[in-house]
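seq:
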Amino acid sequence: MAEPKCAQRSCDFRVAGPRFPCHDNSGQKAYTWEPMLWLEILILAVVQGVAEFLPISSSGHLVVGAALFDQFGHPITDKLSVNIFLHLGTLLAILVFYRRRIYVLLKEDRRVIGLLLAGSVPAAVAGLILKREFQSSLETPITAGLMFPVTGLILLWAARHQSGSMTCRELGYGRALLIGVFQAFAILPGISRSGATIAAGLACGLRRDEAAAFSFLLAIPAIAGAGLLETIKLLGESSAATPVGGLALGATVSFVVGLASLWWLIRWLDRGRLHLFAWWVIPLGAVVLAWQILGK
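struct:
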């Protein structure tokens, strides 16, 4: 396909984004549209909204999706900005969905805030170490392909635990820390954060609805902290290639799809159907590994 032309402008086509930045004779940026990248951001936003809450690993699906676009579509070079805004959308979905629960925590039930802080420690420590030292080697389709079946096994293991009788308020700090350890493993793409923490919550004796609530409330500091670190990293790099409109589209779609997915997951969890998602992630891992090993 021919490169887009800008009359009397010098264009740098090395920078990929939903629009190509072109500099006119005055030195100001003008843009030509690249619809394919808008479509790719839209697809990734839907994937993020679904996979952040359903126990199938949003990070694993985003890594695989981005690799597919790199190989078969139009590469998104500004992955960091896109990732930040997609996670912002799902973070807002949690805040909206659990807004009443959060209000109660802030006003009356502050002990649970302490439990959430304790549960956040393992992911914070693991994130600072692994993201700094091994980020490029961890965030690969091969890693996701290996970890998807692990998520499936976690979900099948969780199916062996009946719904307990405890609420989040009755949880001890040791058990909150244990749930946090399960969340820390979800730094690996392919390990579902929601699946791992809900499974751990059920094993600790929480009711199904309380295990889900603790899992997603625990996600607030995890997602916000990771987003802050990535934003700091982004500010230290060159200006993002993706325009604000593309990022806003991704955040909005991931927010709307995330709300719907969260509502759906709670109802599936109440019916004891969480383990059914294992039959998606286990074969998906095999397909991704086959693609990476045989398809290159």
